[in-house]
Amino acid sequence: MIRINEHYNQLKPSYLFSDIAKKVEAHQKAHPEVDIIRLGIGDVTQPLPPACVKAFHQGVEALADAASFRGYGPEKGYPFLRDKIAVNEYQSRGMDIDADEIFISDGSKCDTGNFQELFAPDIRVAIPDPVYPVYLDTNIMAGRAGDFDARRFSNIVYLDATRENDFIPQLPPGQVDLIYMCFPNNPTGTTITKSALRLWVEYAVENRALILFDAAYEAFIRDESLPRSIYEIDGAKEVAVEFRSFSKTAGFTGTRCAYTVVPKACKVYDKNGETTGLHGLWNRRQATKFNGVSYPVQRAAEAVYSPEGKVQVTALIDGYLENAAIIRSAMDLLGFDHVGGENSPYIWVDGQGRDSWSFFDLLLEQAGIVCTPGEGFGSCGQGYIRISAFNSRENVEKAMERMARALK
Ligand code: PLP
After folding, report:
1. Are residues 199 and 299 in the same domain?
2. Is the backbone peptide bond immediately before 184 cis, with ω within 30 degrees of 0?
3. Fewer beta carbons within 10 Å, N or C terminal of the chain?
4. Could you read off the pLDDT of 323-337 as tens digits, one per residue?
5. How many folded domains does the chain comprise?
């Protein structure tokens, strides 16, 4: 008899965004005249930068010619892309990360989800609440979460991000082995300072723990004093893996290209407490289960680092950040407490006593706006919604006018 992995039954029956899609579909059916504005799912809306489109075309042309055709690429990604990332993202900013420590992948979703496979089933895992749901769900699937008590899993150490700590989780009281961090945060839009991040690195060193640092939104950081990478902190190379993506940086959500940095100095331990190389483990995992990102896509990603690509990417992100500023001032005018949206595309809004799905329903029904209920990101998200700046200027302005009319 073929039996299932019972841990899948511990997952919430439906993923957040499919619940939202169902509600939106039902509303649209009942009100076909409403032009619904989507500020919900964290997907980009603007086209790929022209420099990337050009390189993408050239990459396809190369595959059309027998002389330049390529099949399977190098398992960690093409050196032309890994070199550009190492220089532009790390070495030019004073971080000693080598191209050989970078693994190109088809998304940070897969990498943040898959990375836990490398570790023992009984490690203690700390996960922020609220946060991108992939970290918790993949640990549930792996059977690491324990029992669910209507609110939380018994084996997970939740790192609460609440109004009381300005939505920046505090260090766990006891010892944990694997720590997920996400800055700029999805969903709260908050960022962490260097001094606060240093405490986490010190904690990881002292406890022989590993930090999985998801920096999918680092390109939105405009405040020079804030860290864009965990490797800006001394010692982080020994205790942290960093995930980055071209999805939000350059509009690659549908194109698919990301990278993960696994420093060779990063230490993990076997059952006897002997150190072993994390880099080699991830290399083995990827070489076995992943076959690379297509050549044209890697060429398109490389173009992000061309002179014109850099200008275009900056303009793209500036546009979303300006949208975020419009949303923040609208929230101020309406008197809603909020955080995020300054170095992030997300604004986290307090529902002032409403639960998050009621706030979601109110915005959909009264203003034709789709947001994301905070509860979907963890129990600490109850009472909040996430508004995303990923839309056109016109739609964001229209949405904020509608919201003002509906909620004043
Ligand atoms: N990490 C975070 C925090 C995200 O919010 C997202 C997407 O929304 C991802 C990773 C996924 O990135 P990718 O498109 O590279 O899979």
Report:
1. yes
2. yes
3. N
4. 999 999 999 999 999
5. 2
User: Is 341 inside any structural domain?
Assistant: yes
Report DSSP letters for 37-48, one per residue.
EE--S----SPP
User: What is the distance between the alpha carbons of residues 16 and 121, in angstroms, rounded to a whole number?
Assistant: 26
| Percent over 90 (pLDDT), the chain | 94
Q: What is the pLDDT of residues 134-167, one digit of tens each?
A: 999 999 999 999 999 988 999 999 999 999 999 9
Give residue-wise pLDDT tens across range 261-300. 999 999 999 999 999 999 999 999 999 999 999 999 999 9
- Asked whether residue 260 falls in the same domain as residue 324, the answer is no
Residues 369 and 265 in one domain: no
Collapsed DSSP state (helix, strand, coil) of residue 29: helix
Indicate whether 14 pLDDT > 80.
no
CA of 233 to the centre of ligand 1 (A): 23
1 occurs within a structural domain: no
Task: For residue 218, give both structure tokens.
Answer: 């680092």
Last residue of some domain: 307, 324, 347?
Answer: 307
Q: Dump pLDDT digits (tens) for 352-380.
A: 999 999 999 999 999 999 999 999 999 99
The Cα–Cα gap between 176 and 221 comes to 29
Q: Which domain holds residue 62?
A: 53-307
* Domain identity same for 353 and 204: no
Please check whether residues 379 and 325 belong to one and the same domain.
yes
Q: What is the pLDDT of residues 43-55, one digit of tens each?
A: 898 999 999 999 9
Q: If we measure between CA atoms, which residue out of 244, 258, 101 comes closest to residue 183?
A: 244
Cα 42 to middle of ligand 1, angstroms: 8
pLDDT one-digit tens code per residue, 161-193: 999 999 999 999 899 999 999 999 999 999 999
Q: What is the distance, to the nearest Å, from the Cα of residue 156 to the centroid of all Cα atoms in its chain?
A: 20
CA-based R_g, the chain, Å? 21
Does some domain include residue 402?
Answer: yes
What CATH number does the domain containing 176 carry? Answer: 3.40.640.10
CA of 301 to the centre of ligand 1 (A): 16
Sign of the Cα torsion 185, 181, 310, 232 reads positive
Measured from the Cβ of residue 352, the count of other Cβ atoms closer than 10 Å reads 11
Pocket test for ligand 1, best of 127, 138, 186 (most atoms within 8 A of CB): 186
Do 114 and 259 lie in one domain? The reply is yes
Ligand 1, atom 1, lies closest to the CA of: 216
Are 288 and 258 in a shared domain?
A: yes
CATH label of the domain that carries residue 371: 3.90.1150.10
